[in-house]
């Protein structure tokens, strides 16, 4: 009965108001459904929140056997712990395997997140009987991915693209082709509108587009960050994970004052403790990683048809001496300290991850409450779906991307050259002259050459 | 009841009643707006009513077209303002529909304000990008503007994040789903309305002809398809809009193509329409003066023999732009209507007759502009793919942002390239 009541979605407009009143009453009792708090799986006693998926225990048999002796609470802890370690190891393994594998991993995660959210949409709206819609959603996913990957490929694989003739054509008219593909999907949607299901179909259309906006664009920002240098991929993700774990630990041991009504398990102690420990962690972790050229260099595609990650590290990743302010001097007993400038950036990243990142988590909590789901899916035993793990990551990825474009990276020189070559000769000449005077001013060209 | 009927020629309203749903479904719930003219027509005769509605529509159509030409005359700045206003009005219309659909009127003010805040943020972001591109010299001069433009993305993102955090903090226990719906609704509306109005402005800056011709083609297609449908219409086109017919569709297609050809011939002669809009930093105003590109210069085209025997001319003077206009007209007639069908479906899905009541006889602003949006995006993609090369001042901007050694590298590559092309004499080359 509870399940039926809560599964009723937006089938008819008349039913909407009743649904909302009934279901909203239940939210009073639901103070257990939030993510990030590691112990939310223990709250099985909350009968008002049936899982949308049948509660299949996904834990592999081996784990079950090994933990058969423990009580169920400890068993959950162990399962979570083991899977956390597995995920972290998997993370490092893929880093080791290189940028291409990472790209595929990001793509795989993106597809899974998209699938999870769309499945929720189907359940909420009982849209299973609209078969067109699945196809269309996946089609739109394909289109948007094609568009974004095409832009990335054109930017980073310039030499590769210049060689192959069909690729050149695809790159040149890339936007037009992507737009045409999208329009086809749009027209198919319009043609597929069926009399009794207009509202449902529009809802699913909007749901698909918002999901695409959130999931796909941000996964491409992640890939762009990756190409800037794998450290810009690893450090933010690790910081978010660390903040999650630290905030939970601090909350567990010292937690007293609740943080926000939306997630009752979060506490101010956890929040602040997580903030400080994350900053420290980020600082140290950045120091550790900044030494490796493999992680620090922009990913380039070399002539040998593979990814090359070697370069002269930029000044961000070169040790510099900083004079300490006097209070610290007496503390550390040395006048100067050697640091990477990147570590200061890592402080900014950690601050964002601890202060604003949790809002992504609250957003996902609110979303799950609004649609009466406990977890996004059941993919990872003990942790819920992929989306549950990645909800804080998305804001972080966008922030890192904006941060890089605003403060770190200049435009890509090969791209600028590319654009330059396409201009009209007179425009090229005028740019040439401006550039010449600019460089002469800066002393890059001896003045003798400035004579024209 | 008759007032709810026959807004003749406007597929949106008529379909709402002829799709077979019981008439009561067309009565919009009391808190949404329905009738346009509550007491305008008191005479019981249907013919008189129909004629007076015709008149009102006709007069307003003419008024809108005149208004259109006046603002073109007034110049790019005014056009930009108009586009901005239309965008804000469309956004408001759609958001109001969202509120009425979800009965969200009882949400306290600071929750409803979040829609406008996001509108502001996204507009700030887009206008900032446009301003940086086109007003480059002006921006470089003023110090505060320079900082704003350098960290533009970061500032926009920070503004957006503030709105996002406010939204999360404003989530109230009983209204989660409502609030998420409004959040989603706001974002989809922003995606559709705001991004495309900025594409329109980009098209405008490319040359006002790229703004006028597409809009006119869509309007012409609307009117022509209606005319053909009225006189010859027989086979219905799509279940979604029963008043559309294949005859109207095909007739509209051919007449729009012809109209586009003629209109572009007329307009391509004027520099005012053809030149990219530029901001003159000395006079602090928009200048529209240039050497017309080859697209807008008359060429002689040899006619294929079939047409030769038909018309009796061997060659024809045409602007290359007219050939592009055929592509634009074809799109406007064949794919543009899908935008209209989408809006029709949307109105049926949410049981509304018109988006709003702003224009008597025509409904809201959004009703007039639903086909325009796809067209704007298409024109922008078309220009970016086939017409325009990169913007030289933007390339310069990026060049100056590079590191000095990268600049030097590019300088040398460019130098050898120009020497190859013979634009630079070899004597300037240094060992």
TrEMBL record, chain A:
GO terms for biological process: CDP-diacylglycerol biosynthetic process. Signal peptide: none annotated. Pathway: Phospholipid metabolism; CDP-diacylglycerol biosynthesis; CDP-diacylglycerol from sn-glycerol 3-phosphate: step 3/3; Lipid metabolism. Keywords: Lipid biosynthesis, Lipid metabolism, Membrane, Nucleotidyltransferase, Phospholipid biosynthesis, Phospholipid metabolism, Transferase, Transmembrane, Transmembrane helix. Its main location: membrane. It comes from the Eukaryota. Residues 1-47 have a biased composition (Basic and acidic residues). It is a multi-pass membrane protein. Pfam families: CTP_transf_1. Its EC number is 2.7.7.41. The chain crosses the membrane at residues 137-161, 173-194, 201-223, 229-255, 267-290, 342-364. It is found in: Membrane. Residues 1-60 are annotated as: Disordered. GO terms for cellular component: endoplasmic reticulum membrane. It catalyses: 1,2-di-(5Z,8Z,11Z,14Z)-eicosatetraenoyl-sn-glycero-3-phosphate + CTP + H(+) = 1,2-di-(5Z,8Z,11Z,14Z-eicosatetraenoyl)-sn-glycero-3-cytidine-5'-diphosphate + diphosphate; 1-hexadecanoyl-2-(5Z,8Z,11Z,14Z-eicosatetraenoyl)-sn-glycero-3-phosphate + CTP + H(+) = 1-hexadecanoyl-2-(5Z,8Z,11Z,14Z-eicosatetraenoyl)-sn-glycero-3-cytidine-5'-diphosphate + diphosphate; 1-octadecanoyl-2-(9Z,12Z-octadecadienoyl)-sn-glycero-3-phosphate + CTP + H(+) = 1-octadecanoyl-2-(9Z,12Z-octadecadienoyl)-sn-glycero-3-cytidine-5'-diphosphate + diphosphate; 1-octadecanoyl-2-(9Z-octadecenoyl)-sn-glycero-3-phosphate + CTP + H(+) = 1-octadecanoyl-2-(9Z-octadecenoyl)-sn-glycero-3-cytidine-5'-diphosphate + diphosphate. GO terms for molecular function: phosphatidate cytidylyltransferase activity. The keyword Disulfide bond does not apply. Catalyzes the conversion of phosphatidic acid (PA) to CDP-diacylglycerol (CDP-DAG), an essential intermediate in the synthesis of phosphatidylglycerol, cardiolipin and phosphatidylinositol. Belongs to the CDS family. PANTHER family: PHOSPHATIDATE CYTIDYLYLTRANSFERASE, PHOSPHATIDATE CYTIDYLYLTRANSFERASE 1. This is Phosphatidate cytidylyltransferase. It comes from Erpetoichthys calabaricus. The lineage of its organism: Eukaryota, Metazoa, Chordata, Craniata, Vertebrata.
TrEMBL record, chain B:
Its EC number is 2.7.7.41. Pathway: Phospholipid metabolism; CDP-diacylglycerol biosynthesis; CDP-diacylglycerol from sn-glycerol 3-phosphate: step 3/3; Lipid metabolism. One of its GO terms (cellular component) is endoplasmic reticulum membrane. It comes from the Eukaryota. The chain crosses the membrane at residues 54-74, 80-102, 154-172, 179-201, 207-228, 249-273, 323-343. GO terms for molecular function: phosphatidate cytidylyltransferase activity. Keywords: Lipid biosynthesis, Lipid metabolism, Membrane, Nucleotidyltransferase, Phospholipid biosynthesis, Phospholipid metabolism, Transferase, Transmembrane, Transmembrane helix. Residues 1-40 are annotated as: Disordered. It holds the Pfam family CTP_transf_1. InterPro entries: PC_trans (IPR000374), PC_Trfase_euk (IPR016720). Its main location: membrane. It is found in: Membrane. It is a multi-pass membrane protein. GO terms for biological process: CDP-diacylglycerol biosynthetic process. It catalyses: 1,2-di-(9Z-octadecenoyl)-sn-glycero-3-phosphate + CTP + H(+) = 1,2-di-(9Z-octadecenoyl)-sn-glycero-3-cytidine-5'-diphosphate + diphosphate; 1-hexadecanoyl-2-(5Z,8Z,11Z,14Z-eicosatetraenoyl)-sn-glycero-3-phosphate + CTP + H(+) = 1-hexadecanoyl-2-(5Z,8Z,11Z,14Z-eicosatetraenoyl)-sn-glycero-3-cytidine-5'-diphosphate + diphosphate; a 1,2-diacyl-sn-glycero-3-phosphate + CTP + H(+) = a CDP-1,2-diacyl-sn-glycerol + diphosphate; 1-octadecanoyl-2-(4Z,7Z,10Z,13Z,16Z,19Z-docosahexaenoyl)-sn-glycero-3-phosphate + CTP + H(+) = 1-octadecanoyl-2-(4Z,7Z,10Z,13Z,16Z,19Z-docosahexaenoyl)-sn-glycero-3-cytidine-5'-diphosphate + diphosphate. Residues 1-32 have a biased composition (Basic and acidic residues). Belongs to the CDS family. Catalyzes the conversion of phosphatidic acid (PA) to CDP-diacylglycerol (CDP-DAG), an essential intermediate in the synthesis of phosphatidylglycerol, cardiolipin and phosphatidylinositol. This is Phosphatidate cytidylyltransferase.
């Amino acid at each position: 009965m509870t399940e039926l009541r809560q599964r009723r979605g937006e089938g008819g407009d008349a039913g909407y108001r009743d649904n909302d009143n009934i279901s909203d009453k239940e939210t009073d009792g639901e103070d257990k459904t939030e993510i990030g708090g590691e112990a939310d799986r223990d709250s099985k006693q909350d009968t008002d929140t049936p899982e949308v998926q049948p509660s299949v225990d996904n834990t592999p048999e081996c784990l079950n056997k090994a933990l058969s002796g423990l009580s169920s609470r400890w068993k959950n802890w162990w399962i979570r712990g083991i899977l956390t370690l597995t995920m972290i190891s998997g993370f490092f393994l893929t880093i080791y395997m290189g940028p291409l594998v990472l790209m595929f991993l990001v793509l795989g995660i993106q597809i899974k997140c998209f699938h999870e959210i769309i499945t929720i949409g189907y359940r909420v709206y009982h849209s299973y009987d609209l078969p067109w819609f699945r196809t269309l959603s996946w089609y739109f996913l394909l289109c948007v991915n094609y568009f974004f990957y095409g832009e990335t490929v054109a930017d980073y694989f310039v030499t590769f693209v210049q060689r192959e003739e069909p690729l050149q054509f695809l790159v040149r008219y890339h936007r037009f082709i992507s737009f045409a593909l999208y329009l086809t999907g749009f027209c198919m949607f319009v043609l597929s509108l069926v009399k009794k299901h207009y509202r449902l179909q529009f809802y699913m259309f909007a749901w698909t587009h918002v999901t695409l906006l959130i999931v796909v664009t941000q996964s491409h920002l992640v890939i762009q960050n990756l190409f800037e240098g794998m450290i810009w991929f690893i450090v933010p993700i690790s910081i978010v994970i660390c903040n999650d774990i630290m905030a939970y630990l601090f909350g567990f041991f010292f937690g007293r004052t609740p943080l926000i009504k939306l997630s009752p398990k979060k506490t101010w102690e956890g929040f602040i403790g997580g903030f400080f420990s994350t900053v420290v962690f980020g600082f140290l972790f950045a120091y550790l990683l900044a030494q490796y050229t493999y992680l620090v260099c922009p990913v380039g595609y070399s002539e040998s048809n593979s990814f090359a990650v070697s370069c002269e590290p930029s000044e961000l990743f070169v040790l510099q001496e900083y004079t300490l302010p006097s209070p610290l001097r007496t503390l550390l007993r040395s006048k100067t300290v050697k640091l990477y400038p990147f570590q200061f950036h890592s402080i900014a990243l950690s601050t964002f991850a601890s202060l604003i990142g949790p809002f992504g988590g609250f957003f996902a909590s609110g979303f799950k409450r609004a649609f009466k789901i406990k977890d996004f899916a059941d993919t990872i035993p003990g942790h819920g779906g992929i989306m549950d793990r990645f909800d804080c990551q998305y804001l972080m990825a966008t922030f890192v991307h904006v941060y890089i474009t605003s403060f770190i990276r200049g435009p890509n020189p090969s791209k600028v050259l590319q654009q330059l070559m396409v201009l009209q000769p007179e425009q090229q000449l005028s740019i040439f002259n401006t550039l010449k005077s600019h460089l002469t001013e800066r002393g890059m060209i001896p003045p003798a050459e400035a004579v024209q | 009841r008759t007032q709810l009927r026959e807004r003749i020629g406007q597929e949106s309203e008529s379909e709402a009643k002829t799709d077979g749903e019981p008439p009561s479904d067309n009565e919009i719930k009391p808190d949404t707006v329905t009738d346009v003219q509550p007491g305008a027509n008191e005479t019981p005769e249907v013919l008189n009513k129909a004629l007076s509605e015709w008149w009102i529509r006709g007069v307003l159509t003419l008024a809108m077209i005149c208004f259109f030409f006046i603002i073109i005359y007034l110049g790019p700045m005014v056009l930009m303002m108009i586009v901005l206003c239309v965008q804000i009005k469309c956004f408001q219309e759609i958001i109001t529909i969202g509120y009425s659909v979800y009965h969200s009127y009882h949400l306290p003010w600071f929750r409803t304000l979040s829609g406008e805040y996001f509108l502001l943020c996204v507009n700030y972001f887009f206008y900032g990008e446009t301003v940086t591109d086109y007003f480059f010299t002006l921006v470089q001069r003023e110090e505060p503007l320079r900082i704003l433009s350098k960290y533009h993305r970061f500032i926009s993102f920070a503004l957006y994040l503030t709105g996002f955090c406010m939204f999360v903090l404003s989530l109230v226990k009983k209204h989660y789903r409502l609030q998420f719906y409004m959040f989603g609704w706001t974002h989809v509306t922003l995606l559709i309305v705001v991004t495309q109005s900025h594409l329109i402005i980009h098209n405008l800056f490319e040359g006002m002809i790229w703004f006028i011709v597409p809009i006119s083609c869509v309007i012409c297609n609307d009117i022509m398809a209606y005319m053909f449908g009225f006189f010859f219409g027989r086979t219905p086109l799509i279940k979604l809009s029963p008043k559309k017919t294949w005859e109207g569709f095909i007739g509209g297609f051919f007449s729009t193509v012809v109209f586009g050809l003629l209109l572009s011939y007329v307009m391509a002669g004027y520099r005012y329409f053809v030149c990219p809009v530029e901001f003159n930093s000395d006079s602090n105003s928009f200048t529209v003066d240039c050497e017309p590109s080859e697209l807008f210069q008359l060429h002689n085209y040899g006619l294929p023999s079939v047409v030769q025997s038909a018309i009796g001319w061997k060659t024809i003077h045409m602007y290359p732009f007219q050939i592009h206009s055929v592509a634009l007209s074809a799109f406007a007639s064949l794919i543009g209507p899908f935008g209209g069908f989408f809006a029709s479906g949307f109105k049926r899905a949410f049981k509304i007759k018109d988006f709003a009541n702003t224009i008597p006889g025509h409904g809201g602003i959004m009703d007039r502009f639903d086909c325009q949006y796809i067209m704007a995006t298409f024109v922008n993609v078309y220009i970016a793919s086939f017409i325009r090369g990169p913007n030289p001042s933007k390339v310069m901007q990026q060049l100056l942002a590079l590191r000095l050694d990268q600049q030097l590298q590019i300088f040398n590559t460019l130098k050898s390239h120009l020497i190859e092309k013979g634009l630079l004499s070899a004597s300037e080359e240094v060992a």
